[in-house]
Specification:
single chain, Jelly Rolls, three-stranded antiparallel β-sheet
Amino acid sequence: MRSKMLSVLVAILLLPALAAAQASPAASGPAKSATDVTKADIQAAMKIGMAALTPGVSVSDRNISLSDIGKYNVAVAFVTRPATKVPSGRALAHDKITEIYYVTRGSGTQVTGTLVDATQEKGSVTIGPGWSSGSPVKADRKTTLTAGEMQIIPPGVGHVWTEIAEGGIDYMVIRIDPEHVLGLSK
């Protein structure tokens, strides 16, 4: 059931992109080239991410690839988080960015829903503008994600990891950026 729902959500999110891809080249501008994210790119990001998790640091989030698709950008990020029994930082909701998480190692519980007492944030080239809150998310869903599983977080949906299992969690994030606000991490 979960895999069918994930397939439906992925299809819904990808339909506009697929429709745009079917448009004639003259209508959508010059053809773009493919972007490769190699195993070496991912391993280098993993090494940097692990080194960044010094005491007191709750996340290492690095955009490692950024592709200009024309009407939108697609960023690929590598995220590392340490184990925790409490929320892993502030809850976030992105104004325009859709995030697709793919867990590569570890597990954690992600709460998604509505932010409470949120403040608007300028954001960064990694995650873009949005909202953040130190208050608990008014939970619509509580999902435990493990290696090999995905989660799609649309713009405006509050999200925070409330617990991360011993050993931490690593995940890839694909960020769909319709306003071209994201950049590569340094």
